[in-house]
Design a protein that fits this description.
Blueprint: H1 2-24, H2 27-47, H3 58-74, H4 76-88, H5 90-95, H6 103-130, H7 138-166, H8 169-185, H9 198-206, H10 208-220, H11 233-236, H12 238-266
């Protein structure tokens, strides 16, 4: 029990350190919020008129996809920050302290939830300005935002492992782009998948980015009976499928990242 209490205390300390760093480097928050605003305005007004979303406004179809993309991109902060700390030798200094091995990683991922929360808030305000609306209850909407943040937290652990493997922020940025680009664009984030080629459509239907998008669309009420969606099981049960992925990601990448943290610090 004492060991657990010490581990929690260490994680809280590292979380505070990372949040203070965000406060002292406001550029991180500025650029984390500018990107989703740019995507909202670009897709809403440049591509929106050319995309058919069958019965709902494109703004309401688009915003859940932008939410999913934003938290996915936001999770890369975890990996790039760890790669930077590793490059500067800060991880070695943490290793010399009497602290839990998992504390640095837990503190990093939890702090990045705060950054994602700011991005989601700014994007929600932008969405309301361009015509996005929530048509369900307060608790449904709250559930959508919580599911989104928990999904982001699980992705952060994947990015943490990647950041510890590549060692430098520059390499991490290139490597993470290879993962993020197909997952966020071969999905139902920006357009319905009905017109996709067969192989891409199947990929999109089983892509967790598609299901988190569909889940929060359902929870926000951004759907329409006339908007045809896939009959694939993940799209028909998006919350369940997303929760399965969250469990898989956390169960797989938390132990792998903690083990790699120990190895990386000793190299």
């Amino acid at each position: 029990m004492t060991t657990l209490a010490h581990g929690v205390s260490d994680a809280v300390t590292i979380t505070k350190r990372n949040l203070i760093r965000l406060k002292r480097v406001p550029d991180l928050i500025v650029f984390a919020t500018l990107s989703p605003i740019m995507f909202v305005l670009l897709f809403r007004y440049v591509f929106g008129s050319a995309i058919s979303t069958g019965g709902i406004s494109y703004a309401e179809f688009l915003l859940p996809g932008i939410f999913a993309q934003t938290v996915f991109f936001g999770s890369t902060t975890t990996g790039s920050s760890l790669a930077e700390d590793l490059k500067k030798g800060l991880i070695d200094r943490f290793r010399s302290l009497p602290m839990a091995r998992s504390a640095v990683l837990v503190g990093r991922t939890v702090a990045d939830i705060g950054l994602n929360l700011v991005s989601v808030f700014v994007m929600a305000v932008t969405g309301l300005i361009v015509g996005w609306r929530i048509h369900t209850s307060f608790f449904h909407a709250l559930g959508a935002f919580l599911l989104l943040l928990v999904f982001a937290f699980s992705i952060s652990w994947l990015m943490a492992l990647l950041g510890l493997l590549v060692r430098t922020p520059e390499v991490f940025n290139n490597a993470s782009f290879i993962v993020i680009f197909p997952l966020t664009f071969i999905a139902n984030t920006f357009v319905p998948t009905n017109g996709f080629p067969a192989v891409l459509r199947v990929f999109a239907e089983w892509n967790p980015v598609s299901t988190i998008t569909q889940a929060i669309r359902n929870l926000f009420g951004n759907t329409s009976p006339t908007l045809k969606i896939s009959d694939a099981w993940p799209i028909q049960h998006p919350i369940t499928y997303t929760l399965i992925w969250i469990v898989i990601l956390l169960g797989t990448f938390i132990p792998l990242a903690v083990r790699q943290y120990g190895r990386s610090a000793l190299r």
